[in-house]
Structure formats: C-alpha cells, structure tokens
Amino acid sequence: MIAKLTESFKRIQEENRAKGSKGGNYKNNLNFRIDSKFFHYVDNALNTQKISYTDAFNIVGVGYKGYRALIDHLHFFDEIGLKV
User: Fold this and answer.
1) What pLDDT is recorded for position 55?
2) What is the structure's pLDDT at 21?
3) What pLDDT was estimated at residue 83?
4) What is the pTM of this model?
5) Using a CB cutoff of 8 Å and minimum separation of 24, what contacts does 29-32 make?
6) What values do phi and psi take at 18, rounded to 5?
C-alpha cells in the first residue's frame, strides 16, 4: 500500500514539474496563514498610528505587496458582509 502511494505521489510530482507548476498561489496562501482578527488588530494599530508600516509588516510577516493582498482580501469579505 505504501509503495503504491509513494509511486503515485512521485508520478504526480513529475506531472506537475512537466507542466511547469511553480507551487501555490502566494496571495491565496496568505489568507490562510494570517488570522483575520489578528490582522484587523494590527491594521487598526497602523491606522491609528500606534505602530509604523515597518512594524506592521514585521509583525504580520509580509512585505508591502503581501500586506496589500491581505487588506484587499479582508475588504472584499467586509463589502459582501461575510465575517472571516
């Protein structure tokens, strides 16, 4: 059983390499890595000037583009009325 799973896994990896797959989507992965309540807390501290942009980026663990992607993602869900 393990040999079949290992062989299947290797085959799938080879197929992905042949397709030129470069891994996951950075923006989608960010949304699952960062808790929305924690991000709102950090963003609120940034907006009230209690921390700097550099501090916010370091706390969340992303750069400018990642921070913007998180803001865009959370604002999208706020606009449609869903809590994330």
Assistant:
1) 95
2) 55
3) 57
4) 0.62
5) 30/62, 30/66, 30/69, 30/70, 30/73, 31/70, 31/73, 31/84
6) -65, -35
DSSP string of 11-56, one letter each residue: HHHHHHHHHT---S-HHHHHHHHS-HHHHHHHHHHHHTTSS-HHHH
22-38 CB burial, b ≥16 within 10 A, e <16: eeeeeeeebbeebeeee
Please, are residues 32 and 24 in contact by the beta-carbon 8 Å criterion? no
Per run of 10 residues, the mean pLDDT along the chain (length 84 residues) is: 78 74 70 84 94 94 91 70 56
Q: Give the integer Cα–Cα distance in Å for 79 and 63.
A: 24
pLDDT of residue 34: 84
Alpha-carbon distances of 44 from 16, 21, 39, rounded to whole Å: 41, 37, 8
